[in-house]
Amino acid sequence: MLLLTGGTIAGKVAKNDVSECIDSDSSSFMPIVNDSVNIVKKNWGIEIEPVVEELFDVDSSDMLPQNWAILAEKITESYDKFDAFIILHGTNTMGYTGAALSFALENINKPVILTGAQVPPGYLGTDAVTNLVNSLRLAVWGYHPIKGVVCVFGSKIISGARIKKGTDFDYDPFQSFITGSLGQIGRFIRIDEDALNKHIAYLSKVKPLAIQSRVLSVKRF
């Protein structure tokens, strides 16, 4: 399930001399999603059935706790229908949303992947497709148990509670607080197994990992 929240990757971007106006509705974003799904299928032979839903369209600087509540509720009500959730989000408050969802979805047993773009779709040099493809790659990655809230952006895989934005210029704008780096993603995926195991251990501290939504422990905002 892909959840659109706005921001550079999936929000309304003003038209200029080098780009078209990009709308965040699911129908206009589907060609990008389908291209990304086809890339994963062609290279890995994995069938992905994407469902795209626009929850809201806000600049990430305007993200509020009620937006986090909507995201947590949508993931909870859709939990039994999907194997993974990808949230398309603006970069300015991605760290706040990652932390909020990490604490809200206490024992989640599926990946919730935050991603975005430094350059909007339709602009020269956009990184939107690369970040979306990499998010899909991690969502179906079968070699390590990816679960919980993580950020996939540029070449980084970062634990959701440890996302820190450092620049508006680079394609790799995010760093991790202390031990929050879970790995790197590029031509290959490299996972830090010790860091990933620590990340997953936090998810089962309160209750066993949730196989179904009825045992998913969700903190309300």
Structure description:
The chain is of the alpha/beta class. It has a single domain (2-215), classed as 3-Layer(aba) Sandwich (Rossmann fold), CATH 3.40.50.1170. The chain is 32% helix and 20% strand. It is built from six helices and ten strands; from the N terminus they run E-H-H-E-H-E-H-E-H-E-E-E-E-E-E-H. It has helices at 7-10, 26-44, 65-77, 94-104, 128-139, 193-203; strands at residues 2-6, 52-58, 85-88, 111-115, 148-153, 156-159, 163-165, 174-176, 181-185, 189-191. The strands form two sheets. It has an eight-stranded mixed beta sheet, sandwiched between helices. Helix 5 (128-139) links the parallel strand 4 (111-115) and strand 5 (148-153). The longest helix is centred in the first third of the chain and has 19 residues, at 26-44. The radius of gyration is 16 Å and the shape is globular. The model is unreliable at 14-19 (pLDDT under 50).
Tags for this model:
221 residues; 10 strands
